[in-house]
Amino acid sequence: MSAPALRLALEADGEGAHPAAWRRAAHTPDALLTPRRLTRLAAAAENAGFTLLTLEDGLLPPGSGPDPVGRIGAVERAAFVAAATSTLAVAPVVPLTYAEPFHVSSQLASLDHIAAGRTGWIVGEETDPAVARAWGREVVGDAAGRTRESRDGVEVVRALWDSWEDDAVIRSVATGRYLDRERLHYIDFTGDTYAVKGPAIVPRPPQGQLVVLGRPGAVPQEQLDVALVDGPDLTAVRSAARAITAPRVLAEIEVALDTPEATGAERVAALERHAPWPDHGRLRHIGPAAELVALIEDLADSVDGVRLRPLVLDEDLPVLSRLVLPDLFDRRVAARPLPGTTLRSTLGLERPANRFAAAGPREENR
Fold it and tell me: How far apart are CA 307 and CA 11, in angstroms?
């Protein structure tokens, strides 16, 4: 029996994975933050057959160097993408190091309603002390403290999503009742540094629980639906994937593909004259599209999908759309998402039962 087809994700923050990617963008720098560019990018990813578009984020403004990263908040961009697409799922990065989990829960639940269940959440973390000052919080300076904040925050967010049962909204015109108060619940969470009572102010998301993605170690695996793994080579990625107990695994791959105008190596060299491409310990492919197809096919028995991080979105995404994804689909290595499906169902994840729902059968909410 063959393994299930892989799901493909695209990281689409800024102009690409390289800090100087903006220098090779197909538009003027002032177009980066416009709705038109984001719409075109999302449409290109959706038409290519990507399952998921991910969006990095950062609270601090661009730095003073020659290659700043300009962006609008990831949740706001994700809401725009969700409203402009029909099959593409979207997952913003939202750190919990300093953010209030109650507000994060409300934002993400609202996003899932906008997207009709095509939403994930990448749990990030903040390491720059300046972020703590921006939040007006004490600095969480060690990895253990950041993991604690993520652990407690994810627990609170997940509990708040369940604090409304699926049929809590009754909209009864005859009785004038909008909510069944018996189906709203206090979560009564007490952690190491704060407590949250609840309930939420937004009804339960269409997926019940959004798909939660993150890096093992930064977030406890039992809290993840999808673990993001990396490694400098295939052996390291396979080894990292084998250690995962989360239901699904996505491998990270940075890509610089050959284009009709220049090879991947030439494009990297041109950008390296302005800034180095930081080594984040991820698998990196520089070269022809066919070799990337073979690389992903080699990973198919170890992971459930890959997240591609293009060197320059405007140059690499067209090659991915023309040469990489069609070949993966033809070989049945990867699959497109189906219309009308949630991200959970696309990934083969069950819709979780509500932890607060009373035992016993209930009439389905219609």
Answer: 7
The three-state secondary structure class of 92 is: strand
Query: Whole-angstrom Cα distance, residue 187 to residue 269?
Result: 53
56-101 residue pLDDT tens: 998 887 776 677 777 889 999 999 999 999 999 999 999 999 999 9
CATH code given to domain 11-136+205-346:
3.20.20.30
Q: What angle do CA 97, 149, 229 make, to 5 degrees?
A: 80
Residues 269, 178: Cα–Cα separation, whole Å: 61
Give yes or no for a cis peptide into 199 (omega within 30° of 0).
Answer: yes
Question: And the tokens for 58?
Answer: 């950062």
In a 3-state reduction of DSSP, which class is residue 104? helix
The model's pTM is 0.94
- Domain ranges across the chain: 11-136+205-346
Q: Could you tell me if residue 119 is left (phi over 0), alpha (psi between -120 and 50 degrees) or otherwise beta? A: beta
Query: Exposed/middle/buried for 343, CB within 10 Å: 0-12, 13-18, 19+?
Result: buried
Can you tell me the distance from the alpha carbon of 71 to that of 58, in angstroms, rounded to the nearest whole number? 8
